[in-house]
Amino acid sequence: MTGHAMRRSALLGAVAILLTAAAGGCARPRATHWTLPPEWSLVHGGVVRGDSTQPRIALVFTGGDHGEGTPHILDALADRDVTASFFVTGGYLANPDHAGYVRTMVRAGHYVGPHSHAHLLYCPWENRDESLVTEREFKEDLRANIAALRGQGVRFGEPIYFIPPFEWYNRQHAEWAQQAGCLLFNYTPGSGSHRDWAPEGHKAFRPSRQIVEDILAHERREPDGLNGHILLLHLGSLRQDKMHRLLGELIDALHQCGYHFRRIDELLAIDPASLSAADSPVDVRAGVSVQWGGSFVK
């Protein structure tokens, strides 16, 4: 057996164990649908921007193997009374250096959600329409991530918000996510905030100071500024020039521009009145009803 095959086998075994452990507390899947507001923007079935007429921003942080910036980020948010959204992998949760971080996020009122248990690459970089994972692998990995988060004290409402690993997916993955009870979203393109993962020497690397300046330049340049933006940053990286050190400065600058910070479930809030039973699947596009299976929702 090759190293890749062994890792894949171990992953599926871990997923099976987590799903078995979680099964006893899972509600029976329910078919539900809602209507996505037409003012939201979607790419390949995933929501990438909220209402562009409102000066509201969602700060979203993702974490995997690296999470050294988490304490500083939590402190910067607390000092400014800002709530944000955190999405982490199984690797982040299993790292002893990250022990207690998720429970701190929950206590502080932040949203915490899944980012793929094994941080799978869903589709090739050169061909987004192709899937590298089966529907079963996708859903088992996602549900294992949700089960592990529950074990850290996370409680979910309807739907569960989910940002895909590598922020790379296609319409099929967005549909699988909603069948598993999740609303797939991604960062709003244009600001370049997501480049804070790239280490020195990588072609995507930009100094942290430039990333901040690019975000603010994008805000000044665009007619709607950063209204409705999903601003993605990372909890850690291999780079030496750590972006999290400038987070407080960035928040202060955006506050001065008149923006209000919201959790992702507030920026992309689903009106409870629009929830109702549904029997047939529909397209995941703005302004139409969306069906999803409410697995793992209490």
Topology (SSEs and partners):
Layout lengths: L2 H21 L7 E5 L5 E3 L2 E4 L6 E8 L6 H10 L5 E4 L1 H5 L6 H7 L3 E4 L20 H16 L9 E3 L8 H9 L2 E3 L23 H14 L8 E5 L12 H10 L3 E2 L2 H4 L8 E2 L11 E5 L5
Parallel strand pairs: 4-5, 4-9, 4-10, 5-6, 7-8
Antiparallel strand pairs: 1-11, 1-12, 2-3
Helix pairs in contact: 1-5
Summary of the model, kept short:
This protein is α/β, with parallel strands linked by helices.
Identify the overall geometry.
Answer: globular
Over all CA atoms, what is the radius of gyration?
18 Å
Low-confidence stretches: 1-31, 277-298
Query: What would you give as the CATH superfamily?
Result: Glycoside hydrolase/deacetylase
β-strand amount: 15-25%
- Mind telling me the CATH class? Alpha Beta
Number of DSSP E strands: 12
Query: How many helices in DSSP terms?
Result: 9
Please tell me the total number of domains: 1
Helix fraction bin: 25-40%
How would you classify the quaternary structure? single chain
* Major sheet characteristics: 5 strands, parallel
Order of helices and strands: HEEEEHEHHEHEHEHEHEHEE
Distance between the termini: 40 Å
Mean pLDDT: 86
